[in-house]
Fold this sequence. Notes:
By secondary structure, this protein is mostly beta strands. Helices cover 2% and strands 49% of the residues. The protein contains 1 helix and 16 strands. Strands 2, 4, 7, 8, 10, 11 and 12 form a 7-stranded mixed beta sheet that branches. It has a 5-stranded antiparallel beta sheet with strand order 1-3-9-5-6. A two-stranded antiparallel ribbon has the order 13-16. The radius of gyration is 23 Å and the shape is flat.
Amino acid sequence: TIDSMTAGTLTVSAGSDNPKASQVAVSSSTTTGVKLLTFSLKGKNSEITVEDLVASFGTNDSLSDVISSVKLMKGTTVLKSKTVSGTGTYALVTFDNVDTTIDQDSTDTYKVVATIKKFSGTFDAGDTLVASTTGSNSAWDVSDANGDSVTPSSSVTGGTITFTGSAISASLSGTPTATKTVATIAGEADKMDGSISFKVT
């Protein structure tokens, strides 16, 4: 008895460290390694091969004034680097020929990072940038072990990045302390007092 192979599926979900809405300080030259998006791809029923992957980028300014380039990464490995061009506020970028394989019933995590230009022209403090995997876009090229086309299940969107010329940073100062006081009277609660000191710049 010969049965046809079960079609493979590709589930897209947000990574555990997918950026939340945050501020990024722009340097006087370029700012590299700005994480815009992390997402997980899970292959089911079959080994899944991702040849082309699509991401979208949107800003309230001109993308060409904001982004110099974007990279698709798997761990510390750069799978593809692309230049973002055009004068509009929205663009699709196809990371083509990445040829990454996800084993059956396994999950791999990827991220998109950007090199941000310095403030100039209309690009200034308060401008925003957001990225998405745009899973429903037809430019995705995904196939299962049988060579059949696979459509990603959904899209993942990163938090909105707001650019600023300056921002605060916080770091631990000293060693946190914790003191427990055990109650000596019936019905009285134990108490825990703690202290964490941090330095804000």
